[in-house]
Amino acid sequence: MERKIYWTLRKKILIGYSLALCLIIAVIVWSLINMVRLGNAADAILRENYKSILAAENMVDSIERQDSAILLLMLNYPNEALKQFRENESHFLQWLGRARDNITISGEESVIKKISDGYSEYLIFFTNLSSIVETDTSKAAEYYHETVLPSFKDVRAECVKLREINQETMFNASSRANSVADRAFWSVFTAGSVSVITGLGFSLLLAGLIVKPVHQIINATQKISEGDYDIQVKANSRDELGVMANDFNLMVKKLKAYRDLNVKQILSEKHKSEAIIRSIDDGLIVLNSELKIEDINPTAADIFKKTSDEIKGSHLLEITKDEKLYNYLKQALEAGIVKKDQDPNANILTIESGQVQRYFLFSATPVIIGKESVVSMVLLLRDVTRLKELDRLKTEFVMAASHELRTPLTSMGMSISLLREKAIDKLNSKEAELLLAADEEVQRLKALVNDLLDISKIEAGKMDIDFDSVPVELLLEKAVAVLKNQAEEKNIDLSYESIPDLPNIEADVNKITWVLTNLISNSLRYTEANGFIKLSAEEVGSQIHISVADNGAGIPYEYQSRIFDKFVQVKTEKALGGTGLGLAICKEIVRAHGGTIWVDSQPDHGSTFTFTVPVAG
Predict the structure, then answer these.
(1) Is residue 267 one of the residues assigned to a domain?
(2) Phi (first) and psi of residue 321, to 5 degrees
(3) Do 523 and 442 have their domain in common?
(4) What's the distance, Cα to Cα, between the start and end of the chain in Å?
(5) pLDDT higher for 469 or 301?
(6) CATH number at residue 480
(7) Residue pLDDT, tens place only, 420-443
(8) Last residue of a domain, which of 168, 188, 203?
(9) HEC profile of 162-182
């Protein structure tokens, strides 16, 4: 519902600042008036006095030069003297005319008349002196001192008097201008001060009117965030601030009603969640963003032989003492996503209870608010001790069975080989074909048993690995040399890329060479004639990435996720043989070296197998 605002905040601000604006305009107008007064005063000084002073100065200068010309005349330089006298006579009369045209003050007219009359006499005396100089020099000197010089002094004195009365008038006008300037300064200062004080007072008043209710709302908001919904903001005005305060109070009432309505439901959901957590048979731990335990169910607490209250608030590393689990969760928190590991045994937590070891498969689920903010982590611990024990028994059984089968298979192979050498000529074609098939099957079984025995030893940790600092290029060269002839028979280009300054790796030469030859053999099976197989290596951080790339048939997408599992073979139109254990053995050997192996492949466009080995030292 729209509420009517009788006296808006905008209207108050406009009225207040309009008053300040009017004062500023008045100060500006008054300043302009005083500036005009000052300009008129200065103009009056220039117009009334400066021209007369300038004329007086120039007349004094002209008549002095004429007196100098008279002395030249008496020194018998008539031409120069007459020229100088007439030129300055013209200047004197010119400035006298200007002074006569600029009569503006009292007494100035009589002075100018005296100058004019005296100068006329002076010119007559000069004419008489010129005549006397031609006849009698001594008499001319006497005439100069008695007649011409007093006339010169009288005219010069009147010119000085003209200058002095104008200077005095100018000084008086300047005093009046200073008085006008002082009055203008103080009047503008007073008006400006009044404007500033009025504007400042209104700004403080307006700031108080606006800020006070805003502060009340801020304080009320802080109390609401602390759970106090009984707060109210006073609405003393009918402007926008008053409307905002009323709306705020209405919002607080609705929030309080919403809280009262949902608090029971929230508590009920909380109890349900706690009951679900405690009823789960697997261990469940709730961690905050600092990996401290916020909640834990009884099953998880029993894993660590403690109560839930003893564990809550502790850091996960204090309870599990497992760096691998800690790094796994820390990376998940930073990335906001849990990295899926293809190896099912990678996320295993080992707990020792007395002389018994228990194994738990862990997985984590981040709790995300918004798009990126991870606020907590839910850790699930699933007891796989029995599965690990069954896996161990299976591995030991396979190892024992493989070991027991090697002797009879060896005997069978030797017997069949002996028959092929001694009795092949006595058998018909059907019998010879059967004997050849039996020999092939025995060889295949021997390869399968050897592979089973190798992978069982690796899984049981019983395979010896002799670590040494090895040049990568040496491994690539050995692997290529082993299968170079087979590649040439199929017309396949088998090569390796030589990379200078590559550091040595920490590895067992025979085991890593076996991995490379196995990968090359797989590529030879699936690469057609005129294809290529290329080995390369590069340094990435503290590891060396070694790759075997080909342009063969590639691996279908449905096989790529389990290509390193046991007995997995890619089904093709051609029966290529193999036990399906080669890549599984490769994976175990690489893992024993502290590395990982993976494949990048696109059907019909080849495959690239890559594994990592740590740098030596």
Answers:
(1) no
(2) 55, 40
(3) no
(4) 78
(5) 469
(6) 3.30.565.10
(7) 676 666 777 777 777 777 766 666
(8) 203
(9) HHHHHHHHHHHHHHHHHHHHH
52 by Cβ neighbours in 10 Å (0-12 / 13-18 / 19+) ranks as buried
At 544 the pLDDT is 92
| pLDDT computed for residue 463 by the predictor | 64
- Cα 385 to Cα 283: distance, rounded to the nearest angstrom: 14
Tell me how far the alpha carbon of residue 133 is from its chain's centroid.
102
Q: Closest Cα partner for 364 from 403, 337, 396, 391?
A: 337
Q: What's the average model confidence in pLDDT over 121-127?
A: 87
In a domain, 210, yes or no: no
Per-residue pLDDT tens digits for 594-612: 889 999 988 888 899 999 9
Residues 530 and 577 in one domain: yes
- Model confidence pLDDT, tens digit, residues 250-289: 777 777 776 666 656 666 666 666 667 666 767 788 888 7
Structure tokens of 516? 């490379």
C-alpha 525/C-alpha 519 separation (Å) is: 10
Residue 161 has pLDDT above 70, yes or no: yes
358 strand-pairing partners: 351
**Helices and strands in the chain: count of H runs, count of E runs:** 17, 12
Burial readout 123-148 (b: 16 or more C-beta within 10 A, e: otherwise)? eebbeebbebbeeeeeebeebbeebb
CATH number at residue 422: 1.10.287.130
Structurally, how many domains does the chain consist of?
A: 4
Burial class (CB in 10 A: 0-12, 13-18, 19+), 346: middle
Q: Residues 88, 91, 97, 103: is their CA dihedral positive or negative?
A: negative
CATH code at 374? 3.30.450.20
d(CA 287, CA 597): 32
Are 401 and 366 in the same domain?
no
- Using the predicted structure, report yes or no on whether residue 533 has a pLDDT greater than 90: yes
Percent of the chain, pLDDT > 90? Answer: 8
Beta bridge partners of 539: 544
Residue 78 pLDDT greater than 90, yes or no: no
Q: What gap in Å lies between CA 262 and CA 223, rounded to an integer?
A: 20
Residue 278 and residue 297 in contact, taking contact as beta carbons nearer than 8 Å: yes
Q: Please tell me the distance from the alpha carbon of residue 193 to that of residue 24, in angstroms, as a whole number.
A: 10
- Residues 368 and 404 both lie in one domain: no
Sheet with 293-296: list strands edge to edge. 293-296, 283-288, 373-383, 356-369, 348-353
| Residue 475 in tokens | 């491994």
Contact 205, 15 (CB under 8 A): no
* C-alpha to C-alpha distance for 533 and 537, rounded to whole angstroms: 14
What are 203's two structure tokens?
A: 């700004």
User: How many CB atoms within 10 Å of residue 469?
Assistant: 12
H-helix or E-strand containing 264?
A: helix 240-279
Cβ–Cβ < 8 Å for 611, 546: yes
Backbone dihedral region for residue 313 (phi beyond 0: left; psi -120 to 50: alpha; all else: beta): left
Q: Which of 439, 460, 481 is the last residue of a domain?
A: 460
3-state secondary structure 7-28: CCHHHHHHHHHHHHHHHHHHHH
Sign of the alpha-carbon torsion through 148, 149, 154, 156: positive
CA pair distance 466, 490, nearest whole angstrom: 34
Pair 129, 172 in one domain: yes
Of 545, 551, 510, the residue nearest 532 (C-alpha): 551
For the chain, how are helix, strand and coil distributed in percent, rounded to 5? 65, 15, 20
The encoded tokens of residue 596 equal 């990982």
